[in-house]
Amino acid sequence: MPPTPTTSPAAAAAPGADGAGAAAGRPRAGGPGRRLGRSGGRPPRREPQGPAWIFLSPWVLGAAVLTLLPMAVSLYLSFTDYNLFDPPSWIGLRNYVQMFTEDPRLLRSVGNTLLYVLVAVPLQLALALAAAVALKSMRRGKDFYRSAFYAPSLLGASMSIALVWRALFNDGGTVDNFLSTFGVHTGGWVNRPGWALLTVALLTVWQFGAPMVIFLAGLQQIPGELYEAAAVDGAGRWRQFASITLPMLSPVLFFNLVLQTIQAFQVFTPAFAVSGGRGGPADSTLFYTLYLYDRGFTASHMGYASAMAWMLLLAIGIVTAVLFRTSRSWVFYANEEGH
């Protein structure tokens, strides 16, 4: 019997050899040519989503019951006449029409709020940025000063601090007595229509700790090589600040600007404490939220107050959208092309 022909490994791998095409076209098990999915591989295993929803259920329940449901009720009440005691009666858009045509105090509150935002927010951000730059270059006591500057942000929103602030700027208070030593007699800032709003704005500016910490974190992310190269080219501190610090810090500046603007539109506690809840003197501290509180809980016009709340939400949304729109021309990100 003739011997069975055998094929050497070299002949089997050579082109044109018998079975070479089949060997070349057949992927090895587990090799890169193996196809997964429908054609033969095992489909990916889907993890059960039940445990995730169980852990998310407190947040979902809280958002639905404490946020979404009250918002829906408030939206309904804004189209009704509701005095907290009788059932609400549907009146359509009458509350919204009355806001802009029959309520001069509301327009005064809008003007006061806008003036407060334009004064308090820039001053607060400027002071926060100046403190952050000073802390960055400080070598000793940085942790102490950072904590000391941040403390007012934790305390300033309380009613007790607002009452102390009113006592400081009242007639015969610490500020009035201090200025009297220089021959300046103010009679109390909170009692003068031209100075009462500035008193509330200064309380907000004093709470610059939160944006300062965010600025400080942003400053620490700026590479030091940029300042070294600028110093070699002869740039001074102000030139480095304008050409390096501000452009590199513009995303953080924009973030703080949006947050502080939204908070400024919702200011309530300082105005309530300084004015005694009345918005005086002469409605100079009658902010929008304070007037909303007056209409809803003092005058029992909850339907009208609900309409005011939705207009405030719309105004904040418009201002935020404008800030985002204008940010394209002055906010620069490191991963953007051309920057």
TrEMBL record:
Residues 9-27 have a biased composition (Low complexity). SUPFAM superfamilies: MalF N-terminal region-like, MetI-like. InterPro entries: ABC_transporter_permease, MetI-like, MetI-like_sf. The chain crosses the membrane at residues 52-79, 114-135, 147-168, 195-219, 240-259, 302-324. Residues 28-40 have a biased composition (Gly residues). It is a multi-pass membrane protein. Gene3D superfamilies: MetI-like. Residues 110-323 form the ABC transmembrane type-1 domain. It is found in: Cell membrane. Residues 1-47 are annotated as: Disordered. Pfam families: BPD_transp_1. Keywords: Cell membrane, Membrane, Transmembrane, Transmembrane helix, Transport. PROSITE patterns: ABC_TM1 (PS50928). Belongs to the binding-protein-dependent transport system permease family. This is Sugar ABC transporter permease. It comes from Streptomyces smyrnaeus.
